[in-house]
């Protein structure tokens, strides 16, 4: 049934047509920074010891088809999602109750929470916070024949290091360019045309979010040194060009100075000055100093990045500082899968607490796929039955409180995995119904090779949100939203047979939407 959603696509190319398309794709991509550093499996480390090479990011040859109604639906809820998650991050009591359930069974969450408690004790030095969020969806096909046969269901909501905004704008431009130079055969013109190809404003919009936070800081905190935005990055970062697009736009369009700082160097290269202002001293610029307006986390979201107490000290150092954090630690915690589950468990009463506008809340509700706890609540016990039954488990995915890909357990592997785990650890996971998006044909160019076949797509919609926390007696109780706008989209596409979709994790590709009225 699901295979019939899309028309046959893409056309089969002659060898000459494919060569023409690929030559254009490769040259355009490198010229425009639609690029990544190669994996060592593709270019051996001894051939590129300085890690100076770049290669085309994994991309689809054709823009994938995507139902226009679903695209519109996902964009329409973007601001409400930012509203929701900023409200959760500003409701310490509610969030604390959820975190409490995880403390003893999840070290990482426990350590994040401890950082919050430590900073809370002396008082936060900054009440402004920036969220550059991304809400991810897949198309769900319902059995009913009604108008809403196709809708989007949310895979997850990212509150930290939401990546690929830089490359997403580029891949949409790439597909438009390929169309303009006739790389797509004439027969596709009913599908691929100027009206159906969808640009993504993610680069200008995400950069604008950072620039707005920077300006808000300059206005309210009156820096007495030049101010900069600090991109906090991983030591080895393949996806550096994705981040560079945002840096260059901040530089060119907003006149905002940016620096890149490896998470491992935070304590060496930054210090806290008067009023806990974060001072950055770049080792390359002989003693010159900048005051950090915004710390933009593109690192620090995975337990593997915290190898010693020093790494936790670095996280606390930043959280203590007066820089605006993107995100702050409560916002990071709000993005945990457990929060998503608490909101999306059928009949959950929680959404109404945060979204008072009933029609906005209903629109969000319609994007939730069923998610269950694995604790000893009624819903949890029911979920345990599903997860341990080899037949029933086929329809589910089991997720820990982690980000960044490669952590989930899928379908038939769930019962065996749970059996290998003490029951006391089960509540650290959530059980989510698999969304089964319709497949279509496409071809992915990755590591110099083309792979054609059936693919599935995941749409991400970015949102930028700047707010000011209200603190009463040392506890965060609510916030005032200063900016909230949708910030472009991302389409990621992977082989229909693969469970994970991470581009960086090595399973997927970046893509753009060719919208289709279905
Ligand atoms: P992470 O935080 O590691 O990115 P996700 O929840 O996004 O975790 O899961 C990783 C990938 O697994 C997704 O990009 C998607 O391809 C797949 N996936 C996760 N949940 C579902 C689901 N409910 N239905 C279908 N695929 C899913
Ligand atoms: Mg994800």
Total number of helical segments? Answer: 16
Record field, number of beta strands: 21
| C-alpha geometry | globular
Q: What is the terminal-to-terminal distance?
A: 15 Å
Spans with pLDDT under 50 lasting ≥5 residues?
Answer: none
Range of helix content? 25-40%
Biggest beta sheet attributes:
7 strands, antiparallel
Structural class, judged by helices and strands?
A: alpha+beta
Distinct bound molecules: adenosine-5'-diphosphate, magnesium ion
User: What percentage of amino acids are in beta strands?
Assistant: 25-35%
Tally of discrete structural domains = 2
Q: Determine Rg (CA atoms, Å).
A: 23 Å
Quote the average pLDDT.
Answer: 95
């Amino acid at each position: 049934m699901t295979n019939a959603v899309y028309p046959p696509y893409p056309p089969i190319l002659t060898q000459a047509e494919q060569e023409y398309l690929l030559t254009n794709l490769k040259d355009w991509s490198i010229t425009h920074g639609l690029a990544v550093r190669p994996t060592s499996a593709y270019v051996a480390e001894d051939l590129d010891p300085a890690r100076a090479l770049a290669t085309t990011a994994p991309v689809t040859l054709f823009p994938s088809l995507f139902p226009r109604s679903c695209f519109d639906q996902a964009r329409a809820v973007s601001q409400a999602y930012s509203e929701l998650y900023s409200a959760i991050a500003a409701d310490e009591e509610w969030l604390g109750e959820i975190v409490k359930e995880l403390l003893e069974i999840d070290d990482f969450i426990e350590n994040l929470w401890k950082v919050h408690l430590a900073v809370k004790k002396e008082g936060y030095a900054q009440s402004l916070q920036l969220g550059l969020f991304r809400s991810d969806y897949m198309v769900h096909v319902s059995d009913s024949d009604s108008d809403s046969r196709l809708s989007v269901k949310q895979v997850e909501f990212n509150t930290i290091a939401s990546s690929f905004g830089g490359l997403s704008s580029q891949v949409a431009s790439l597909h438009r360019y390929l169309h303009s130079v006739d790389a797509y055969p004439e027969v596709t013109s009913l599908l691929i045309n100027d009206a159906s190809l969808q640009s993504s404003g993610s680069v200008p919009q995400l950069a604008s979010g950072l620039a707005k936070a920077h300006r808000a800081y300059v206005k309210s905190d009156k820096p007495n040194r030049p101010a900069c935005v600090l991109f906090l990055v991983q030591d080895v970062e393949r996806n550096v060009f994705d981040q560079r697009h945002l840096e260059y736009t901040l530089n060119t369009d907003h006149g905002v100075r940016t620096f890149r700082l490896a998470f491992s160097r935070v304590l060496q290269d930054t210090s806290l000055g008067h009023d806990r202002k974060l001072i950055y001293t770049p080792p390359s610029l002989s003693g010159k100093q900048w005051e950090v307006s915004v710390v933009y986390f593109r690192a620090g979201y995975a337990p593997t990045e915290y190898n010693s107490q020093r790494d936790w000290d670095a996280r606390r150092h930043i959280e203590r500082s007066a820089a605006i954090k993107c995100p702050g630690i409560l916002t990071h915690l709000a993005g945990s899968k457990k929060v998503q589950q608490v909101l999306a468990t059928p009949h959950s009463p929680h959404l109404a607490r945060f979204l008072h506008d009933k029609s906005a809340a209903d629109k969000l509700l319609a994007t939730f796929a069923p998610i269950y706890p694995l604790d000893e609540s009624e819903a949890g016990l029911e979920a345990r039955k599903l997860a341990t039954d080899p037949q029933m488990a086929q329809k589910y995915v089991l997720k820990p409180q982690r980000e960044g890909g490669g952590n989930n357990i899928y379908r038939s592997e769930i019962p065996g995995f749970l059996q290998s785990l003490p029951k006391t650890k089960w509540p650290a996971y959530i059980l989510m119904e698999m969304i089964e998006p319709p497949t279509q044909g496409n071809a992915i160019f990755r590591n110099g090779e083309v792979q054609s076949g059936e693919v599935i797509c995941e749409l991400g919609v970015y949102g930028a949100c700047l707010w000011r926390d209200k603190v009463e007696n040392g506890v965060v109780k609510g916030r005032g939203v200063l900016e909230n706008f949708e910030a472009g989209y991302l389409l990621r596409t992977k082989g229909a047979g693969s469970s994970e979709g991470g581009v960086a994790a090595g399973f997927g590709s970046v893509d753009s939407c060719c919208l289709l009225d279905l």
